[in-house]
Amino acid sequence: MMRLYSRTLAVTIGTVASALLLAARPGAAQTVSWTAWSSDSSTGAIGTLLVGVTPVNVTYTGDILTGQTQLDGGFNHWLPTSTFTGAANVNAPSNGNLIALSGGTATVDTITFSQAITNPLVALWSVGSPGGPITYNFSDPYVIVAGGANAEFGGSSIFPVTATIVGGQEGNGVLVFPGTFTTLTFTVPTAEFFHGFTVGVTNLAPPSAAPEPGDCALLATGLLPLAGIAARRRRRA
């Protein structure tokens, strides 16, 4: 059973979720700048995203499958698009731009931004396998804003496990991390070949009005689940 641990954090996440729902109305799509990964190595990858017109460098260090990782312009794994747009009405990642992982180690995977990023998003692809789920264990609480079965392998949507852990069995989806960060860290303790992620940002305006009844119904039915909100949020300096 999920518990609401922090009223302050719940208000913060509720504001972000409301803003995403308001953005989901026709004509109000949120444009996400997903990272354009430009190079990789046996220890990580580097890329760039845009905050407005400002380029922000993104560095990833940790587990990586260099033979499967797709850089900007590679094969498009990010399908079906609906599993990455969801109730938030954001754009899916583009061709390539997939950092592939295998997991199964104690390696701490780290995403570092060259400047602070507000409400970063992480898109996950093909998390888990038909034989069993795996998890991404993040250091910070998240909200699921999109999800669904993988186009290549079937399965089902990513799903909440705890406030900071998300699971999947061939699951796609998008997470938003409420707050301001210069780093995001996670581990993938169970091995599975192969799955992957990318990271992006959108400038979410605060909601200008209370959510409409239909929006509240979406929240109530769990399309934007508050996955066991953590006791406190770590603010990244």
Structure summarized in a few sentences:
12% of the residues lie in helices and 35% in strands. The protein has 237 residues and is mainly β. Strands 2-3-4-6-13-8-11-10 form an 8-stranded antiparallel beta sheet, with no helix packed on it. Strands 1, 5, 7, 9, 12 and 14 form a 6-stranded antiparallel beta sheet that branches.
Please tell me about this protein's structure.
By secondary structure, the chain is mainly beta. It has one domain (7-220). 12% of the residues lie in helices and 35% in strands. The protein contains three helices and 14 strands. The strands form two sheets. The protein has an eight-stranded antiparallel β-sheet, with no helix packed on it. Strands 1, 5, 7, 9, 12 and 14 form a six-stranded antiparallel β-sheet that branches. β2 and β3 (44-51) form a beta hairpin.
State the separation between the terminal residues, measured CA to CA.
Answer: 32 Å
The arrangement of helices and strands along the chain is: HEEEEHEEEEEEEEEEH
Strand arrangement within the widest β-sheet reads 2-3-4-6-13-8-11-10
Total helix count? 3
Q: Average pLDDT, to the nearest integer?
A: 80
Q: What coarse outline follows from CA principal-axis ratios? A: globular
Structural class: mainly beta
